[in-house]
Write a structure and sequence with these properties.
Largest sheet: none
Oligomer: single chain
Helix content: 55-70%
Radius of gyration: 26 Å
Distance between the termini: 68 Å
CATH class of the largest domain: Mainly Alpha
Order of helices and strands: HHHHHHH
Shape: flat
Number of domains: 2
Length: 160
């Protein structure tokens, strides 16, 4: 898919021209979706920026700032990928083998329980633990401190 085709496709979804010089939120979010899709298709920031009238640094900003867009814009992003059968693997779609193995173990265990036990587990354990995870602040990493250096060598060999 070319950048021109991508721009036209997004213009159809948004019902306005995303390359129009406008600072309204809808336009900005549409450009963020465009930059994310174009970059994931392998285009350079300079090339994708030229198509919609952005400099390469603005295109980079929109690409990195994609996470703030609304659900509506993320739906359009996913819809464009689906409708055009684009070969883009989203990071949230990829599950590591280890995580998949752990989830299979959990599902195997839970599948043996009855409905009441599952509800009890969700209400008394899972929701509480999820709140704990959300409330926990990440630990600060301690900077590595290099050992002290001696200004003059020690004459006593026992202390070395």
């Amino acid at each position: 898919m070319t950048l021109q085709q991508l721009k036209e496709e997004l213009n159809k979804y948004y019902k306005f021209d995303i390359s129009e010089r406008n600072r309204q939120r809808e336009y900005s979010y549409a450009r963020k979706v465009y930059c994310r899709l174009a970059r994931e298709l392998g285009y350079t920031f300079q090339a994708l920026g030229q198509e919609v009238g952005l400099k390469h640094d603005a295109a980079l900003y929109h690409y990195k700032d994609f996470d703030i867009v609304k659900k509506h814009d993320k739906k359009i992003y996913n819809q464009v990928i689906k409708d055009n059968k684009l070969n883009i693997i989203r990071s949230e779609d990829v599950i590591s083998e280890e995580k998949e193995r752990l989830l299979d173990n959990v599902l195997d265990t839970i599948s043996k329980w009855n409905e009441q036990t599952i509800e009890n587990f969700i209400n008394t354990r899972l929701k509480v633990y999820n709140k704990l995870i959300e409330a926990t602040k990440p630990q600060k990493k301690i900077k590595e401190v290099k050992g002290a250096t001696l200004n003059r060598p020690v004459k006593n060999p026992v202390l070395c």
